[in-house]
């Protein structure tokens, strides 16, 4: 993840992401992409990850959900992926709104 993408996720986390959850037990990161957290840590859910980003782990039902799903989250200033079975979701997750960002500001022609 490059610095620009990390900055976008951090700003999205500051706005609350698509939901919140609490860690049900300690989870040690097994790869650089994983999120490490301790029991009772608050995690902001940023997005649900498609199955093909999980290196063959988990279920084979497309996009995972709930216990079997993988998510991108933010905890203690770190962005990383985690499994839904390691957390308790506070409520149903919001549907993400996908927008394409323009790298240049739009300009209006003078009238």
Query: How large, in whole angstroms, is the Cα Rg?
Result: 16 Å
Order of helices and strands: HEEEEE
Number of strands: 5
End-to-end Cα distance, whole Å, is 42 Å
Q: Biggest sheet: strands side by side, in what order? A: 4-3-2-1-5
Low-confidence stretches: 56-64
Count of separate DSSP helical elements: 1
Q: How are the SSEs ordered, and which strands pair?
A:
Layout: H1 3-14, E1 19-23, E2 42-48, E3 70-75, E4 78-83, E5 87-89
Antiparallel strand pairs: 1-2, 1-5, 2-3, 3-4
Describe the structure.
InterPro entries: SH3-like_dom_sf, SH3_domain. Residues 16-92 form the SH3 domain. Pfam families: SH3_2. Keywords: SH3 domain. The protein has 111 residues and is an alpha+beta fold. It has one helix at residues 3-14, and strands at 19-23, 42-48, 70-75, 78-83, 87-89. It has a single domain (3-89), classed as SH3 type barrels, CATH 2.30.30. It contains one helix and five strands, in the order H-E-E-E-E-E. The longest helix has 12 residues, at 3-14. The protein is globular, with a radius of gyration of 16 Å.
